[in-house]
Amino acid sequence: MDDTRANALASKLVGSTLAGWSVKSLIDNGKSAAVFYAERDGYLAALKVFDREIITRFGGGTQLARIERELEIRESPHPNVVKILDGGYDKPGDLYYVAMEYLPYENLSKKVSGFDPKMIPSLVNQLAAAARHLENLGLVHRDIKPSNIIWQSDNSLKLLDLGVIGPIGHIGEITDVNAREFIGTLQYSSPEYLLRLERDTVDDWRAISFYQIGAVMHDLIMGKQLFQEFFTPYGRMVNAVQHEQPLIQNAAVPSHIVDLARKCLVKDPKMRLNLVTWADFEGLEKEMRSSAKERVTNRLILSAASEGAVALVDPERQRATLAAQLGAHLRASIRAIRSDSSVFPAIHVIPGDQQLTVRFAASDAHRLPNGLVVIVGWHVLDPAESIIEVTGRSDPSDGAAHATVYFRGVMDKVAVYVALEELVYTMLDAAQSISIE
């Protein structure tokens, strides 16, 4: 609804009543509706009145079905989902409307620049909780983006625009005129959703929700909109969504938050689901301890990350290059870990085919009378997305299938270093425990 139509509707409604709601003033207008400040029985509301052009295009029955779906959410409220108060068809005015709780705050898209990094973990936790709540109700939002999120002064969050939600497993049966029509925002949509390659299943819609949450995380971390350099022409944005891997880095944001955002924005939905679960968003607001070593290393890696995306090359060559880079990083890291602490005896590193055999010398002083062998393995799971896996095992007789995964995600040297350190200390602790017994 453009400004002209919104103002014309305002001149008709302001000062009158609609379905018992006293319409006070026009708040804003968007693509499909105008939103008014309204009051009924002492309760304040944001009254969303839909454009007649939308009704003409999709039909009154379709619009009413969408409204009724929003009303169903009233029965299962959530603190991070906007509260729906009323809605339906007002026959006297021939208008379709939804009344929701009035939230006198700006949407998140107007706040991302200069956003306090300390607030990001809690907001991401809340946003994921809202999306997960809808999924538990058998629904998917389909248009999670900063402008559909209200940020309140107490750092609480509300997910808005429930008119685009769809019933998982039945998308297109009632509320979408065309089941394959794109409903959402190109800039914040995953590649598979843009091309309508998703299946109407819980897993496929969950992968899309993860991507959109990751897109919001990008904006908060980077202080700018995702793919804003590709706004025009339209074809550049389409290409960016499909092929450009956005840079995500901010030394003021904990590395586990940055890493989660990168995982969420992986292009391949199957890989995305392998890397991210709902549980990953829980407890993000808890402060993560970081050593001076990690902070120093992080600065170096974040600087290197700005070098840009990998050029398009043969996938197998890209896989081999990434594997070689990872192997070199692991060899350097294992020696750095050893030299950084006196808790380890002398080591001998034997390189192999995508694995390192690290032999720690026998030492009673280090409670390793029989020494220790640690086998570090690595695999490139997706060269195009730089998705890698690092594993560890202590028994050479065990096959690689028995190895424990210590890292799986987008190649990040800081995260790999931390995972390798955890691997080595875990193996050392287990070996010392056996020698004590």
Characterize the biggest β-sheet: 6 strands, antiparallel
- Proportion of beta-strand residues: 15-25%
Give me the Rg, rounded.
26 Å
What's the shape?
Answer: elongated
Summarize model confidence as the mean pLDDT.
86
Gap from first CA to last CA: 75 Å
Helix content: 25-40%
Secondary-structure-derived class: alpha+beta
Unreliable stretches (pLDDT < 50, length at least 5) are 298-313
Q: Numbering strands along the chain, what is their spatial order in the largest sheet?
A: 1-2-3-4-6-5
Tally the beta strands.
15
Order of helices and strands: HEEEEHHEEHEEEEHHHHHHHEEEEEH
In DSSP terms (H or I, runs of 4 or more residues), the helix count works out at 12
Your description of this structure?
Helices cover 37% and strands 20% of the residues. The chain has 12 helices and 15 strands. Strands 1-2-3-4-6-5 form a 6-stranded antiparallel β-sheet. The protein has a 5-stranded antiparallel β-sheet with strand order 11-12-13-14-15. The protein has a two-stranded antiparallel sheet with strand order 7-10. α11 (315-339) packs across α12.
